[in-house]
């Protein structure tokens, strides 16, 4: 009979590209993972891995077994949820991956609610960009994620993941109160061609959204600062050294010297969604968190 641990080892190697990385993700030694793979290879009657530089590649047979193994593990996870969960008492650890402004605007209020309810759900939260969050959930490193899907930068979701719409968010352009545009109320990208911008780092979805604002005009915005923390952007706008595109969700109260201008043409909107594996659809803890997050989002 095939050992489930051996299947987990092969799937992890497929996901991470090396035995060492797979071992780290599963909490085992590299030698233990190698032994599990060799056990599978003996049962399969052929090689499942082949060396490639410092990493490994799966053979055709290895790829086929890995994909089938992933589906089996998802079904096992769903079976465990169904057998072990008490619908009347959501409990247990839930690993959450969420983008930073949702941590402030949604996850923080969620944790407070759970504590007030005396809930036995224990959240473990990591702040990450949506692409990484989706990957974590798909790979089994997280159970639930909060992600955003910009109208200008769509977010791909693998088919084995379930999504739930939570709320819509909008980004404003922040300027100093003495800026010539501060009294306008709203602006468009064409009004901002000569501005110095605060931006999130290259590779983050919010950075791509800023780039695409100007793409149709064939120019790139002038970036003065790269920082993932919107609080830093707000602080520098307050000093009058640039402007910033900052979403409303989780945004703190703006300083007196900072003015938020509605952005139009093109407006920058994003859909905030909950993502989790379909195999966890029957989990009382996941369903309780989804319901609470939807209720919190209604008040935004």
From TrEMBL:
GO CC annotation terms, alphabetical: protein-DNA complex
The UniProt record lists the keyword S-adenosyl-L-methionine: no
Residues annotated as domain HTH lysR-type: 2-59
Domain of life per record: Bacteria
GO molecular function: DNA binding; DNA-binding transcription factor activity
InterPro entries assigned: LysR_HTH_N, LysR_subst-bd, WH-like_DNA-bd_sf, WH_DNA-bd_sf
Keywords: DNA-binding, Transcription, Transcription regulation
Family per similarity comment: Belongs to the LysR transcriptional regulatory family.
Protein name (record): DNA-binding transcriptional LysR family regulator
